[in-house]
Amino acid sequence: AQRRERGLPALTYGLTGGDWQAADVRPDGRGGMAFTVRQGGAEVARASLRLPGVHNVQNALAVIAVAVQLGVPPEEAAAALAGFSGVGRRFEVRGEAGGVTVIDDYAHHPTAIRATLAAARTRYGKRPLWAVWQPHTYSRTKALLDEFALSFGDADHVIITDIYRSRDRQTFGVGPGDVLDRMPAHPDARHIGPLDAVVEYLAAHVQPGDIVIVMSAGDATRVGDELLERLGGSR
Q1: Domain for residue 86, yes or no?
Q2: What span, in angstroms and rounded, lies between the C-alpha atoms of 61 and 58?
Q3: Are 199 and 82 in contact (CB under 8 A)?
Q4: Does residue 87 sit within a domain?
Q5: What is the CA radius of gyration of the chain?
Q6: What span, in angstroms and rounded, lies between the C-alpha atoms of 234 and 228?
Q7: Which contiguous run of DSSP H or E holds residue 213?
Q8: pLDDT tens string 17-67
Q9: Concatenated DSSP letters for 5-69?
Q10: pLDDT value of position 217
Q11: Which of 81, 114, 133 is the last residue of a domain?
């Protein structure tokens, strides 16, 4: 809006309005998403994605809008996106073992956690969903305690590891328990500090059909692969 007020070019996009709109957004039945691309209210393409989640629909719509600005016909841009399978550490399926699917994701902010878990719920329906989250920095955890506590509504089971210190030199008086204290209504949320203990707990409790999503911007990314090894699977 500010760019337009200053006479600068700008494009808007979204699910309910804007120059570009994603309409009829729905799961495609194959683990991805399908939607209709509208420009100025008129249908210009139909798109399908291999990736789940409304946030990926919004990202794809932005890509199509930019591609059209660069001279690519909208239907060609949409067709190219149909072959995109994602990037590493963004809803990356690491493997399956014993009927358990393991996913790795970089999510470490409340918005990203909610989007990742919502995408998993869209793709996998009512299958039991485990969220393993490694808080990233004490400072961020303290600043966003309430938001983090509200981010796990789509998860059936939540494991919070010890906080990954990263750049922080102090703890700011906060720990994983402070997040758990703010989510007393969740049926199964717990703190398991050491990553080796997280792997052990998961290996002892997951069941065929379960989905395990490990969300970390630190070293907890190894949990998923180690769990697969414990369950006898391969990547």
Answers
A1: no
A2: 5
A3: no
A4: no
A5: 20
A6: 7
A7: strand 211-215
A8: 899 999 999 999 999 999 999 999 999 999 999 999 999 999 999 999 999
A9: HTT-----EESSSSSEEEEEEEE-SSSSEEEEEEETTEEEEEEEESS-SHHHHHHHHHHHHHHHH
A10: 95
A11: 81
Look up residue 211 and give its two tokens.
Answer: 């989905």
**CATH number, domain containing residue 72:** 3.40.1190.10
Q: Distance (Å, rounded) from C-alpha 234 to C-alpha 213?
A: 17
Across residues 112-137, what is the average pLDDT?
A: 97
Q: What would the mean pLDDT of 141-156 be, rounded to a whole number?
A: 98
pLDDT at 66: 97
Does 120 share its domain with 22?
no
Sign of CA dihedral 124, 126, 128, 130: positive
* 181: Cα within 13 Å, side-chain hemisphere: 7
pTM of this structure? 0.85
What CATH code is carried by the domain that includes residue 211? 3.90.190.20
Structural domain total, the chain: 2
3-state secondary structure of 165: coil
Per DSSP, the residues of 93-142 read EEEEETTEEEEEE---SHHHHHHHHHHHHHHHTTS-EEEEE--B-HHHHH
The boundaries of the domain holding residue 226 are: 92-230
